[in-house]
UniProtKB/TrEMBL annotation:
GO terms for molecular function: endonuclease activity. PANTHER family: OS07G0170200 PROTEIN, SLL1193 PROTEIN. The keyword Nuclease applies. Keywords: Endonuclease, Hydrolase, Nuclease. This is HNH endonuclease. SMART domains: HNHc. It comes from Nesterenkonia natronophila. It comes from the Bacteria. Residues 69-118 form the HNH nuclease domain. It holds the Pfam family HNH_5.
Length: 167
């Protein structure tokens, strides 16, 4: 089971195991805001399983510019949808091919399905007469939240600001 950790300012900070969350609560570093139905069974005690905890002290998070894109981060940014046809994507393509001077930047990489990737090859969009369904950009701030928040658990929803979640 996973537990949502909220910073002292109630913004989502992380998702941890229920065991780690229980340790934070027992050490007095966090409070339980919501519980799951199944308790954590220890040799001498039953501990309510936390679903959402709130840290007592604010944790300052360093917000850095996104690093270089990876296959995984591009697929997450594009929600695993092909930027050319809209089908399910499992690979990444350079919009301007590397052989034609394209770089591996956020603005030139796009999630792509296998058939479109093979069909495009090292051609440009103009040569194929294709249009992009979405323009590749540097991902927004919520992309740096835990991936579990892409599909949050129902019990977490009252604690999540809808502006912090991906659309």
């Amino acid at each position: 089971m996973r537990t949502l950790v909220l910073n002292a300012g109630y913004e989502p900070l992380n998702v941890v195991t229920s065991r780690r969350a229980a340790v934070l609560v027992m050490r007095g570093k966090a409070s339980v805001l919501a519980e799951d139905g199944l308790p954590i069974v220890a040799p001498s005690v039953l501990i309510p399983r936390p679903a959402v905890i709130l840290l007592h002290q604010y944790v300052r998070v360093a917000r850095r510019n996104p690093g270089p894109p990876s296959r995984r981060s591009v697929l997450r940014r594009d929600r695993k949808q092909c930027g050319y046809c809209g089908r399910s994507a499992a690979t990444v393509d350079h919009v301007i091919p590397k052989s034609r001077g394209g770089d591996s930047s956020w603005e030139n990489l796009l999630a792509c399905c296998g058939p479109c990737n093979v069909r495009k090859g090292d051609k440009t969009l103009e040569q194929l007469g294709w249009n992009l369904l979405t323009t590749p950009r540097v991902p927004p701030h919520h992309m740096w939240l835990p991936a579990e928040l892409d599909a949050p658990r129902e019990i977490w929803m009252p604690f999540l600001d809808s502006t912090a979640l991906p659309a």
